[in-house]
Write a structure and sequence with these properties.
This protein has two domains: 40 residues; 188 residues, no CATH class. Helices cover 31% and strands 31% of the residues. The strands form four sheets. Strands 3, 4, 7, 8, 9, 10, 11 and 14 form an eight-stranded mixed beta sheet that branches. About 6% of the residues have low confidence.
Length: 241
């Protein structure tokens, strides 16, 4: 056997070994992990909406949260993190929030205006005071997606923003809260609160969830985001498995 032929054979054998190693790594390591992650992904995330609507069908606040778990898991997690359920909108609560704003009195359960997703208003709403009255606050709305995962768990889409002041809507002229433009700091603030309370079991991020990084909500307020969506699996509430 000539030296040239032996060299070619050794080179071809090295390429065969490299190709075999690559196939083994893909078939037995990488692809099973990717499929496992795909199967673990909640089906509601496949065709998830991106933005809410006002009652006048104007684009509202963008979605920037998703939590996987039962309603009891979400409610107990928010309470443990120090967030308060918002009161429903009634004449009494409307007068109360007006009094809080004008007279600078605390109202930790102040109502939030309705936004719509899946053809209905929010299922749950929570807030966290950020000042002496209801004019400044962290607040979030949640909607339960209609699709369950293989474990029977719903996915809750959320829109969290910071109310910086009360004023007139730029689009309708109605009295409303104006939101701060930075959505990401509010999103991260809520995630941090839940992690500090020990209520998040796992956390992943979806890049480019929002198709754009800037926009305006139903009140005409500008918003900006890095377009990422956190996908958090909640720990079961006490007494739940």
């Amino acid at each position: 056997m000539s030296r040239t032929f032996r060299s070619l054979l050794e080179r071809d054998f090295a390429w065969i070994l490299a190709a075999l190693g690559l196939w083994l790594a893909l078939a037995y390591l990488a692809l099973p992990v990717l499929w496992k992650r795909h199967e673990k992904r909640h089906p509601a995330l496949e065709d998830a909406p991106r933005i809410t609507q006002t009652g006048s069908m104007i684009p509202g606040d963008p979605l920037n949260l998703s939590f996987i778990g039962q309603e009891s898991d979400l409610v107990s997690a928010m309470l443990a993190a120090g967030w308060h359920p918002a009161d429903p909108i009634t004449l009494k609560s409307s007068l109360h929030i007006a009094e809080s704003t004008v007279l600078h009195r605390a109202y930790v359960d102040a109502p939030v205006s309705n936004l719509f997703l899946f053809g209905r208003k929010e299922d749950l709403a929570f807030e966290k005071p950020a000042g002496p009255d209801a004019s400044k606050r962290h607040h979030v709305r949640f909607w339960k997606a209609p699709t369950l995962d293989a474990q029977g768990r719903p996915c809750w889409f959320g829109a969290v923003t910071f109310d910086r002041s009360v004023g007139f809507s730029h689009t309708t002229g109605q009295i409303t809260h104006h939101i701060a433009a930075d959505l990401d700091s509010e999103r991260d603030h809520l995630i941090d609160d839940l992690q500090a309370a020990g209520r998040i079991q796992s956390l992943e991020w979806q890049n480019d969830f929002q198709p754009t990084g800037v926009g305006r909500n139903g009140g005409g307020d500008r918003w900006q985001t890095d377009q990422r969506l956190p996908i958090a699996v909640l720990k079961p509430a006490a007494g739940q498995k």
